[in-house]
Design brief:
There is one protein chain. The protein has about 350 residues and is of the alpha/beta class. It has helices spanning about 5-10, 20-25, 40-50, 70-75, 90-100, 145-160, 180-185, 195-200, 240-250, 260-265, 275-285, 295-315, 320-345, and strands at about 35-40, 60, 80-85, 105-110, 135-140, 170-175, 205-210, 215-220, 225-230. Helix 6 (about 145-160) links the parallel strand 5 and strand 6 (about 170-175). The chain is elongated, with a radius of gyration of 25 Å. Bound molecules: S-adenosylmethionine (SAM). S-adenosylmethionine (SAM) binds near residues 37, 65, 69, 86 and 142.
């Protein structure tokens, strides 16, 4: 049998169940770390299938915990799997898995938010960005307080082709709180359309695969969970720096229910607000009376391009943040008050 056939037909030998492992190593879920485990291997197999064909693939799993999803990934016939786990209590159980899958499982005890994935795999895994995605996947069932900042960080990495995207259009299969999963994939005019929808969809094809009821986890979280698959686009739909796109999208969604020009106004200082908003809307050729949720990605592209054009002629606009101006005014008011009070209460001569 050839080496590649051997790789593809790999199955883990009989092992203690995840439940037994949790008891064996006393792996109580830590509430502060929002740990909710998946013990049903049919369900973890289903999550792994959303990633596509993993035969001979290179995979990074984030937050393996007691290793349910890890087993399903190994059984999918991967070439190698790097798991990044922050909680040291899970390392002995993961070592047991690593012994059962010789040469396939590398364990990193660390934080995924700082892990250098660009150094985690050999360079020959890479594929040029415009070609098919590399056979490299990120898969994970992370706590919700980590998965949202992490996807924002990875979207920025995607835009800059850094981190996991130094290898090309690395695909991701991740879990989110159901509402966040819906926002990530929400189409124009849908109730869940938000800043996150635009930021994800201008860079990726986003697929909300299925929902896992909260009761499938141990302990049961308050919410249901959505599995989302991301494939970075060969051509991002907006070709401007990530931070610039983020600034425009954030401001537009500041007044979700109002006409979109209201948020756009906040991109400009008081003195030139009306004039520059008009100029930006005209240049972008976007109807100012559309609501933020009604704007398509091409609308956002036109708006970001128009804003970039205005910033090119007036670079000080780039650093203008309405929120900061408000904070400054608030601070000035506050620092003035004690002096006023002092004047009011100081007895006269
Ligand atoms: N994947 C396992 C499963 O499905 O049963 C565990 C899921 S549990 C929701 C999340 C796991 O991510 C925990 O093992 C937790 O310790 C780990 N984790 C949390 N924050 C992390 C971080 N910043 N970096 C790496 N792992 C993290």
């Amino acid at each position: 049998m050839s080496a590649s056939r051997k790789l593809a037909s790999f199955r883990l030998p009989p092992l203690p169940t995840i439940g037994e492992l949790i008891k064996l190593y006393n792996l109580r879920a830590e509430k502060q770390l929002s740990q909710n485990f998946l013990l049903d291997l049919k369900l973890t197999d289903k999550i792994v299938r959303q990633a596509g064909n993993l035969k001979n693939a290179h995979v990074c799993e984030v937050g393996p915990g007691p290793g349910g999803l890890t087993r399903s990934i190994l059984n999918a016939g991967v070439a190698d799997l790097v798991v990044v786990e922050k909680d040291s209590r899970f390392i002995p159980g993961l070592k047991l898995l690593s012994d059962a899958a010789p040469g396939k499982l590398r364990i990193v005890h660390g934080d995924i938010l700082t892990y250098r994935m660009d150094r985690g795999f050999a360079k020959d895994v890479s594929r040029p960005w415009e070609e098919d995605p590399p056979n490299l996947h990120i898969i994970g069932n992370l706590p919700f307080n980590v998965s949202t900042p992490l996807i924002i960080k990875w979207l920025e990495d995607m835009s800059n082709r850094t981190g996991p995207f130094t290898f090309g259009r690395t695909r991701l299969t991740l879990t989110f709180q159901k509402e966040v999963a819906e926002r990530l994939s929400a189409s124009t005019s849908s109730r869940q359309r938000s800043r996150l929808s635009v930021m994800a969809q201008y860079l990726c094809q986003v697929h909300n695969c299925f929902t896992i009821p909260g009761r499938a986890f141990v302990p049961k979280p308050e919410v249901d969970v959505g599995v989302v698959h991301f494939t970075p686009l060969a051509q991002p739909q907006i070709q401007q720096p990530f931070k610039l796109v983020e600034k425009v999208v954030r401001n537009v969604f500041q007044f979700r229910r109002k006409y979109c020009y209201r948020g756009i106004e906040m991109l400009f200082p008081d003195a030139c607000r009306i004039e520059l908003t008009q100029e930006m809307m005209q240049r972008a050729d976007v109807d100012p009376s559309l609501r933020p949720t009604e704007l398509t990605i091409p609308h956002f592209k036109a708006l970001v391009d128009a804003y970039a054009h205005l910033c090119a002629s007036e670079p000080s606009l780039l650093s203008y943040e309405h929120r900061e101006e408000l904070q400054l005014r608030h601070h000035q008011k506050k620092t003035k008050r004690p002096a006023d009070t002092l004047m009011d209460t100081t007895p006269g001569p």
